[in-house]
Amino acid sequence: MIRTASLAQKGHDLLERKRQILMMELVKHIDDAKDLQREMASVFADAYKALERANISMGIDVVEDIAMAVPEEEDFIIRLKSIMGVEIPEIDPVDASLKPSYSFYGTSGSLDIAYSAFRRVLELISRLAAVETSVYRLAVQIKKTHKRVNALEKVAIPFYKSSIAYIENVLEEGEREDIVRMKKAKENLEKKK
């Protein structure tokens, strides 16, 4: 029972350290997410302004047709990194360089600027998705770890401590009774002599 209580206490200490490390990682990722969201708002505003200029100079229908010719991005490389057992995604940066898939004939520089701005948006979105996924996974794991710490702290450890105290009291009471019995037996032997 004492060994089990000791193991429960060690488990509690380990889980508490895990929770603290996960909290530090969570705070770091939340700060990164805030920075990325601020940057994203600025880049989105610039990209939509560039798109408006392209729509004005070339016409909405022409820009829309050209946009349909742009292939979907499929070159996302995602690796998972483990932090205290939590799988955190890491995405390789998306190449934001200009690789237009449309002809320069019949287009204007405003379309190239809009294309470049939206490539930058794509890069930021991929980074933000990785950071927000990390925040979510860390928060879920922190919640689970917190429940386990509380279960050990509020239920298991007090149960073991009270059980150990009860057993010690019972044993001490038995020892006292044995001492009294031995004294009585000694007194009875002395009386018989």
From TrEMBL:
GO terms for molecular function: ATP binding; proton-transporting ATP synthase activity, rotational mechanism; proton-transporting ATPase activity, rotational mechanism. The keyword Nucleotide-binding does not apply. The keyword Ion transport applies. GO terms for biological process: proton motive force-driven plasma membrane ATP synthesis. InterPro entries: V_ATPase_D (IPR002699). It comes from the Bacteria. Keywords: ATP synthesis, Hydrogen ion transport, Ion transport, Transport. Belongs to the V-ATPase D subunit family. Produces ATP from ADP in the presence of a proton gradient across the membrane. NCBIfam families: V_ATPase_subD (TIGR00309). This is V-type ATP synthase subunit D. It comes from Acetomicrobium hydrogeniformans ATCC BAA-1850. The lineage of its organism: Bacteria, Thermotogati, Synergistota, Synergistia, Synergistales.
